[in-house]
Specification:
Layout: H1 2-6, H2 13-20, H3 22-34, H4 41-58, H5 65-70, H6 80-89, H7 106-130, H8 151-163, H9 169-193
Helix pairs in contact: 2-9, 3-9, 4-6, 4-9, 7-8, 7-9
């Protein structure tokens, strides 16, 4: 019996990340929608500043040589510049770039990237909501627009790279902790940026 358990195939990393952070994900979803970011351009401006802080904090990860070795093509995916342009589109000053997040290991950084890229999949709903306040992929909602390859295909390509990594259990745990840290960072930033 022990031998069967010992030799059982591991869950793919993305499934481990999803199950290990499902509560975090739900709490962020509820906080974002509870903040009514699409009620007005003013409230959407708060949302963009939140996105600016998150994407700005992890922007350097997309250029990291080790992470690009693990995830080829990563350098093509950051959305920080699009967030900055979205802010300009709606007449908002672009804040100073936030301090860069430096995860303890490249494997923890994978968890942060999983959150960032996963949010692009869920952005389809958010993008639709921006149209209610007169925005689209050409003005104000660039960073929420679909990847040129489509959201689904882009996400499958990204998860295939993640699941193809040969990580030991400690490295997998570091990735899960990184994802959890990313959600915690986002929750805290939201509470600081949106008016109470």
């Amino acid at each position: 019996m022990n031998a069967i358990v010992k030799n059982a195939p591991q869950l793919p990393l993305t499934k481990r990340l999803k199950s290990g952070t499902s509560g975090d994900h739900d709490s962020v979803d509820n906080l974002v929608m509870g903040s009514r970011p699409f009620e007005s351009l003013e409230r959407y401006g708060y949302f963009l500043r939140l996105q600016h802080r998150f994407h700005g904090s992890i922007n350097a990860l997309y250029q990291d040589a080790e992470l690009n070795r693990l995830l080829p093509g990563l350098h093509e995916l950051p959305r920080f510049a699009a967030v900055e342009q979205d802010l300009r589109d709606i007449g908002q000053d672009v804040p100073t770039a936030p301090a860069a997040i430096t995860p303890a290991t490249p494997y923890a950084a994978l968890g942060w990237l999983y959150c960032s890229e996963g949010s692009n999949l869920g952005a389809a709903f958010l993008y639709k909501e921006t149209q209610q306040i007169g925005l689209d992929g050409e003005r104000g909602a660039r960073h929420l627009a679909a990847h040129p390859d489509g959201r689904g295909l882009h996400w499958r390509q990204f998860t295939t790279l993640l699941d193809g990594l040969e990580l030991n259990e400690e490295q997998r745990q570091q990735a899960i902790q990184g994802a959890s840290d990313a959600f915690a960072f986002y929750r805290q930033a939201l509470r600081e940026i949106f008016p109470q």
